[in-house]
Amino acid sequence: MEYSRLIALGALVAAVACSSGPSPEAPAPQATAEAAEGITAAAITTDDLALHLAAFAHDSMMGRESGTLGNYLATEYLAAEAARIGLEPAGDVGTYFQTLPLVQRALDPEASLGAGGQPLELGTDYVPLPGMGHFLPFGMAGSLDGVETIFAGRASDETPALTAEQVAGKLVVLDVPVGPDGEPNLQAWRPFTLRAYSSAAGIAIALLELMPPAWLRFIQQPQMTFGGGELPEGPLGMVVTREAAARLLGGSIEGASVGDPGVTVEGSFRFVETPAAHPARNVVGILRGADPSVRDQYVAIGSHTDHVGTTSQPLDHDSVWAFNHIVRPMGAESPQREPTAEEEATIRQLRASFETIRRSRLDSVFNGADDDGSGSVAMLEIAEALVNAAERPRRSIIFVWHTGEEKGLYGASWFTDNPTVPRDSIVANLNLDMVGRGMEDDIEGGGPAYLQLIGSRRLSTELGDLVEEVNTTGGLGFEFDYQYDADGHPQNYYCRSDHYMYARYGIPIVFFSTGSHQDYHQLTDESQYIDYEKLRDVSRLVYGIAETIANLDHRIVVDKPKPDPNAPCRQ
Q1: Which residues, in sequence order, are bridge partners of residue 175?
Q2: In 3D, which of 530, 442, 492 has the Cα closest to residue 188?
Q3: Distance CA 35, CA 8 (A)
Q4: Which residues on neighbouring strands pair with residue 238, listed in sequence order?
Q5: Positive or negative CA dihedral for 13, 17, 18, 24?
Q6: Degrees, nearest 5: CA angle 276-277-282
Q7: Please, are residues 202 and 245 in contact by the beta-carbon 8 Å criterion?
Q8: DSSP 533-553
Q9: What is the pLDDT of residues 374-389, one digit of tens each?
Q10: Cα–Cα 20 to 30 A to 558, which of 143, 158, 238, 340?
C-alpha cells in the first residue's frame, strides 16, 4: 500500500469528518470526490479494499450506529466515493441519499408491573422490549391492569401452542426454546411466534438472566425506529427472569403446562419519541446500462453501513480478543459463560503473548470492519470495476448501501417500500454482509475457499445455478456452504439481513457471507483481522455474477412461490 495513497484518502476522510453537519438535501459531493481522483485502481485489489476499510471502520466513524454522527460520516464517505467513481445519484431529489424517518424511542421511567398485588422491579425482574421492525413486533404503550396471564410453552418457529382466541387480551408467558444440544437458544424472539400472539395484551419471555450483558445493555438503551404518526399497536413485550415468570404464573415455569392460567397483573409502560441526532439514510447510486431496451431493469447490489456504535465501558482490546477466541467462538452469537480453569489459563497466556509485541489499549468502539464494513467497501470496488469495464453491462446496476440493518432491516425495508426505481424493475438482489473472514480459526470448515450462500435458490433455480456457473467459469473456486440455508436452521440467517426485504416482494436474492466468528458484534471486529485476499475474491465473484445477470437475454426466472410481503419471515 502506497503511503501517498493513504495521505490522499486521509484528506478525503478529514474533509468528510469536518463537514458542518447533516444536510440530507445537499447536492452530491462532487468537489470532495474530485479531490480524491486517482486514489484507487480500476480493478478490484486488496490494496484498495484495505484503503477503504481503514477509513470506513476507523475509530473516527464511532461504530457507525444509525442515526448518529458516525453513520452520517460513513454515508458522506460512501457518497463522495460513489461520485468519484462515476455512479449516478439515485437517492432523494438528485442526491445519493435516501433519508429514513427514524426517531429515537426510550422507555418512560414511570413503567410499572405487578403480579398478584406484588410489584416487580424494573431492570431487575423485567425489562420492557421496544418494537423493532420485523424483529420485535411489539406495541409501544399500553396498560396491563387486570390482565390475566397464560403459559404458552416455548418460543419457537413451529405452530403456536395456543390460538389467537386463547391468548386474546392476556399476558402470554413464554419459556426460552431449547436447541438440538439441549441448551437454551437465545434467539427466542422469533417473529413467527411473536406475531402469532398479536392478539395478546403482552408477551413475557423468561430470558432475562440468560441474556449476555451486551444484549441487556442494548435493549435498555434508547432505540432507533421508524417514527411519525401513532405509536405502533401490538402486545407489550418484555423479558423477565425465571423467578418473575413463576410469580406471573403462580408457580414454577418448569412445572407449568401449556394453557395453564396464572395470576392477574397490573401495570403499564410506554416508549416516548425524540428526533434522531443525525439523519439516518441509505446511499444509492446507479451505473446506467448500455442497452436501451433493458437499461430500465436493475441488478441490485447491497450491503449495510451501520454497526452498533460505542460503549461507555471501555475494555482492554486484547483481553476481549483472547476471551472470545477461547470462550465465544461465534462472538455475540455464542452464549455468555464463565471460562473453565483450563480456558482461563489459556486466555492469560494469549494476553501475555500480546504484551510482548504491543501495548495494551482500552477500546470502546465497535468498528464493524467485517460487519458490514467488508460488504460496504466491496461494493465500492465492484462499482469502480464495472464503471471501468471495457463494455458496460446491458442492464443497469443499482448500488444500495442500507442503513439500519442492525436495528431491524430498516434501510432495506424503507428502500423496498419506497424504491427510487420501480420495484418491479429490480431483477435480482445480491447482498454482501460479513464477507471478510471465514478462515480456519474463524468458523468450522473455514478456509481460503469457504463462502456461505443463503437464499440463492429460494425464489429462482436459475439464479442459484448461475452463481455456481460463474464461480466455476471464473476460476474463483469457492466451496459454497449451504447448511445455513436449510429450512428451519436455528440461526435464521435468511431472515436476518437486508436481502429478505427484497425477497418478500418476489425479487430473487443471494446472500453472500463468510460467516460468524469470534469478533462478531465485539469491540475486536477491526480491519487488522480482515482477510483481504478473501474479500477481494468475494468481490470479484459478485462482480461476475452481477455482470452475467445484467447481460442475460432475459430476466432471471422466478420459478418458486413468492412470499407474502406482509407475513413474518420463516426460514
Answers
A1: 154
A2: 492
A3: 8
A4: 128, 204
A5: positive
A6: 65
A7: no
A8: HHHHHHHHHHHHHHHHHHH-S
A9: 999 999 999 999 999 9
A10: 158
Helix, strand, coil % (nearest 5) of the chain? 35, 20, 45
The number of CA neighbours under 13 Å toward the Cβ of 229 is 6
| CA dihedral sign, ordered 475, 481, 487, 492 | negative
Question: What are the tens digits of pLDDT across the range 237-279?
Answer: 999 999 999 999 999 999 999 999 999 999 999 999 898 989 9
Q: Which residue has the cell 431493469?
A: 297
**Mean predicted confidence (pLDDT) in 325-346:** 93
**DSSP class of 556:** P
* Cα–Cα separations (whole angstroms), residue 26 to 20, 22, 92, 127: 12, 9, 10, 41
User: Domain 105-275 adopts which CATH fold?
Assistant: Glucose Oxidase; domain 1 (3.50.30)
The answer to whether 369 and 525 have CB atoms below 8 angstroms apart is yes
Q: Three-state SS across 116-175?
A: CCEEECECCCEEEECCECCCECCCCEEECCCEEEEEEEECCCCCCCCCHHHHCCCEEEEE
CB 39 within 8 A of CB 5: yes
CA dihedral 546, 547, 550, 552 (to 10 degrees): -120
Q: Which of 92, 78, 66 is nearest to 227 (CA)?
A: 66
User: In percent, how much of the chain has pLDDT > 90?
Assistant: 77
| pTM for the structure as a whole | 0.82
Residue type, 302: G
Q: In this structure, which amino acid lies at residue 377?
A: V
Q: What are phi and psi of 184, to 5 degrees?
A: -60, 135
Nearest to 426 by CA among 506, 525, 346: 506
For 87-118, write each residue's pLDDT tens digit: 999 999 999 999 999 998 899 999 999 999 99
Comparing 2 with 85, the larger pLDDT belongs to 85
Amino acid identity, position 487? D
Reported as half-sphere exposure (CB side, CA atoms, 13 A), residue 43 has a value of 5
Helix or strand (DSSP H, E) at 510: strand 509-513
Interior/surface letters 448-476, b for 16+ CB within 10 angstroms, e for the rest: eebbbbbbbbbbbbbbbebbeebbeebee
CATH superfamily ID and name for 3-100+279-309+366-551: Zn peptidases (3.40.630.10)
- Sketch the domain layout of the chain as residue ranges: 3-100+279-309+366-551, 105-275, 318-362
HEC assignment per residue over 260-286:
CEEEEEEEEEEEEEEECCCCEEEEEEE
**Sorting pLDDT into bands at 50, 70 and 90, what band is 198?**
very high
